[in-house]
Amino acid sequence: MIADSTLRSHRLEALFELQRAAPIWINAKPRRPARWCWPRAEGPDGPRKVILSDIILFAHPTFGVLGILAAVWVFVEALNASEDNQKRIWYASLVVTVCIVAAWILGGFWYVNYYYAEKAVILKGPWPWAHNIFMETKEHLFFIPLILALYLPIAAAQKLAANPTARAMVMVVTMFVVLNGLVIEGAGAIINYGAKVAFIHSGAKGSE
C-alpha cells in the first residue's frame, strides 16, 4: 500500500516534469491541480502530500474489491438459501450495490478529470496497448457490473429458499459481477503498470 502511494506520487511529479520539459511530446493538458491535500509522512525526497487524485485512485479499486467480495458472500448465502438467511442475503446484495456504484462514480470522476494526461504518456510509452486494449476494454465492461449490481437487490428480495428460479438468478448475477470485477481489476493493474513503464522509459526524475 505504501509502495503504491509512493509510486502514484512519483508518477504525478514525473508527469509534471515531463510536461514542463517536453510539452510537445505529451500532447495533453496538464492535470487539474488538487483543490485540497492532506500531509503525508516524510519521504526520501522530502515531505509529500496526499492529493485528491491519490485518494480516488486508492478508493476506486478498494470499493471494487469490496464489491467483488460482497458478491461472493451473496453467492454463498444463496447457495445455502433458507428462511434464516433471507434478510442477510438481501443486506449483502445492498453492500454489493453500494460498493460497485461507489467504484463506478470514483472511477468515472478520475477518468474525466485526471486520466487524459496519463493516457497521453501511456500512448507515447513502450506499452501503448495498455490503453488501446485494456482501458478500451475496461470502458466497455465498466457498465456491466453496475447494471448487475443495481438489479441484484431486486432479485435477492424474492424468497430464494422457496423460489429456485430467483435463487438461480441471484447466483448467476453474482457470478457475473465477480468475473467482470476481476477482469476490470486486472485491466486496471495493467494500465497502472503501463503508465509506470512509460515514465521509466522517459527517464523522468522520480519515476523509478
Description:
The chain has 208 residues and is mostly helical. It has helices at residues 2-21, 52-79, 86-113, 115-124, 129-141, 143-156, 164-202; strands spanning 37-43, 46-51. It has a single domain (2-202), classed as Up-down Bundle (Four Helix Bundle (Hemerythrin (Met), subunit A)), CATH 1.20.120. A two-stranded antiparallel ribbon has the order 1-2.
CATH topology: Four Helix Bundle (Hemerythrin (Met), subunit A)
Mean pLDDT: 78
CATH architecture call: Up-down Bundle
- Give the overall form: elongated
Q: Which strand order does the major sheet show?
A: 1-2
Number of domain units: 1
Provide the gyration radius in Å: 20 Å
- What count of helical segments does DSSP give? 7
Could you give the order of the helices and strands? HEEHHHHHH
Structural class label: mainly alpha
Number of strands: 2
What characterizes the major β-sheet? 2 strands, antiparallel
**Which stretches are low in confidence, meaning pLDDT under 50 for 5 or more residues running?**
1-7, 18-48
For the terminal residues, how far apart are their CA atoms? Answer: 17 Å
